[in-house]
Amino acid sequence: DAQSVSWCIDRLGEVKPPFFMACGLHRPHTPWDVPKKYFDRIPLDSIQLPEVLADDLADVPPQGKKFANESGTDEQGVHAKIVKMGLWKDRVRAYLAAVCYADAQIGRLLDALEKSPYRDNTIIVFVGDNGWHHGQKKHWGKVTLWNEATRVPMIWVAPKAAKAGVKCEQAVDLMSIYPTLCELAGIPVPKHAEGVSIRPLLANP
């Protein structure tokens, strides 16, 4: 991730507008092996574990329950094993350390953009691909239709097109990114693009 960001920072010194740049970060995806200093920022005793209801899967059909905890039984699922081994706080801490690491890399790239000639006329989109369960619904990981896995960050910076510092509560999907970018950049939206532009929501959340 640090190398990817460094590469993009170098390209910022070479590109000429108009340009499109995408920088993908692997973290906080597993494995959560990031430098120790990011773990040091999060003391283990500061970790607040998510609430897990004892009967949270009572209304889930057998196949869904089996998928959620990989075994179909509360005693043998991944969550039960992590709790039994006393690793729940440790694993949540590791995830948060990976988030801190990713945040630091994003900060490096934003700092470079701030120092570039493009700071005032560049559209920025920050987005994740999925959320992550840390024991909620007795599930660890992603690939569910529950809130923890389906909600992702989506942050837009669009000069003259988006209000700064506001939050939009409307539901959107990631397919909206392509047509929205086209519209903001004054580029015709290709016919094959299936998403819907969210430019109106950027102007009026």
Write the layout of secondary structure elements.
Blueprint: H1 2-12, H2 36-40, H3 62-69, H4 78-84, H5 88-114, E1 124-127, E2 133-134, E3 140-141, H6 147-150, E4 154-157, H7 177-185, H8 199-203
Antiparallel strand pairs: 1-4, 2-3
Helix pairs in contact: 1-5
What characteristics describe this protein?
single chain; 205 residues; mainly alpha; two-stranded antiparallel ribbon; two-stranded antiparallel sheet; 8 helices
Describe the structure.
The strands form two sheets. Strands 1-4 form a two-stranded antiparallel ribbon. Strands 2-3 form a two-stranded antiparallel sheet. With 205 residues, it is mostly helical. The protein is globular and about 55 Å long. It has eight helices and four strands. The chain starts with a helix and ends with a helix. 14% of the residues are buried. The mean pLDDT is 92. The longest helix has 27 residues.
